[in-house]
Design a protein that fits this description.
Radius of gyration: 21 Å
Strand order of the largest sheet: 1-21-20-19-18
Shape: globular
Distance between the termini: 22 Å
Number of strands: 28
Structural class: mainly beta
Number of helices: 3
Length: 410
């Protein structure tokens, strides 16, 4: 993304509000329908040529709690659990605890962080209307009060001159999907939703569930999902923590669930960049609450991208008992789309380690996963020969009580 971005960002987003929201115009097509007919298991070498293991330092000051989330930046690894911890990407040593939860002016409402474009600062939401800012040493560096309405975004993309905010349907059922703010929090423009949103009347809802790390929702539920059950039989899924923004080779990407197209903001336009073709399995956005036909539909639920690939997950039969999660990989150079059932283990054919589970892509392009130390120790009991594997030298010093090991494939 160009760093002198703000003045053009508003006009780009305005232009985008008039564009076709579906796959028309995209120069690249991810053919999910075609790949489904030839689904076959992946190996780690499909994702890259090298694997690097980063055991995270374990001391009383940096113990990682359960169900951690990992964000890998260019130089750091951010771990979000009960707190936000920062580790060095090269050797895993602990750098600092970033911020704290609470109600005081420097506190955040939750440890979900947002890195700015230069990766010099981490921002956190402080309800109801502020972003608090910390540097990479853990020092508080101020806050930004967001104009209301629309108020504090669910997710933000932060440049040198602007903050682009995204609002989910649950938090903002009205006419705002995207909003552009200056760095002081003053709102400059808003963009309506792709499909008109309806107000959530509580008397129409029988149950609102928050699900966390539910296997049936794949990577989507690593951050948590809301499932809404309506009295008339409709059902709806809403992500909590998978950001719709990415930066790829200096360009901003934007994608929203139930949208067939990944958009790129570049050269004065909001351009359709990559489309998902689900063909006969397509799930129209205006039928997102239709549970009766979900058995015949596929929903793309998670998207990550680097310079060479688009990695995604999709679910067939989302609201049925026979739902199937697929891992997908689109090769930008060849145009090939591949799918494999997520239940098919991704064999590590590069270092002969545990099966690989891609969770995200680092800002520097590596595929990211992790393994809990206790799980590795248990695996070693069944694969004692791995201790003599020079590619897995980190195993020699591993203990079951240590912090997780981050796995990077490039």
């Amino acid at each position: 993304m160009k760093r002198t971005f703000f003045s053009s960002c508003i006009s780009l987003l305005l232009l985008g509000s008039c564009t076709d929201r579906q796959e028309g115009g995209a120069s690249n097509v991810i053919d999910i329908e075609g790949a489904l007919e030839n689904a076959a298991a992946f190996t780690v070498s499909d994702f890259g040529k090298t694997v690097r293991y980063v055991p995270l330092e374990t001391t009383d000051d940096c113990l990682i709690g359960g169900d951690p989330k990992f964000k890998v930046l260019r130089n750091c690894i951010v771990v979000e659990s009960q707190s936000c911890l920062l580790f060095d990407k090269n050797d895993g040593h602990f750098i600092a605890e970033i911020g704290h939860a609470g109600q005081d002016p420097e506190a955040f409402s939750g440890p979900l962080s947002i890195a700015d474009g230069r990766e010099e600062f981490l921002y956190f939401r402080h309800m109801p209307d502020r972003l608090v800012k910390y540097d990479m040493k853990g020092d508080f560096r101020g806050s930004v009060t967001m104009a209301s309405p629309p108020g504090l975004p669910n997710f933000s993309f932060i440049t040198d001159s602007a903050i682009i905010g995204y609002y989910t349907e649950l938090s903002n059922p009205g006419n705002t999907m995207l909003a552009v703010f200056d760095r002081d929090g003053a709102m400059r423009d808003t963009i309506p939703p792709f499909v008109p949103r309806k107000d959530f009347a509580t008397n129409d809802i029988t149950r609102l569930s928050f699900l966390f790390n539910e296997p049936v929702y794949g990577n989507l539920s690593v951050w948590g999902v809301f499932i809404i059950d309506y009295k008339d039989g409709r059902k709806q899924i809403m992500p909590v923590g998978n950001t719709p923004f990415r930066e790829i080779n200096g360009e901003i990407r934007f994608w929203e669930m139930f949208t067939d197209t990944i958009y790129t903001v570049t050269r004065g336009e909001l351009l359709p960049s990559i489309a998902f073709n689900t063909g006969k399995w397509r799930w129209p956005a205006d039928e997102k609450t239709d549970r009766d036909h979900s058995g015949n539909r596929i929903l793309v639920t998670d998207v990550a991208e680097n310079g060479a690939f688009v990695f995604f997950q999709c679910i067939r039969g989302l609201f049925t008992d026979g739902q199937v999660i697929y891992n997908g990989l689109y090769d930008k150079e060849t145009g090939e789309t591949r799918l494999a059932a997520a239940s098919d283990a991704i064999r590590d054919d590069l270092t002969d380690f545990m099966p690989f589970r891609p969770l995200s892509i680092a800002t520097s392009g590596e595929f990211v996963s992790f393994a809990e130390a206790a799980d590795i120790v248990e695996w070693l009991e069944e694969h004692p020969e791995a201790k003599g594997n020079a590619k897995l030298a980190f195993l020699k010093d591993l203990d079951a009580d240590m912090n997780p090991v981050v796995i990077l494939v490039e």
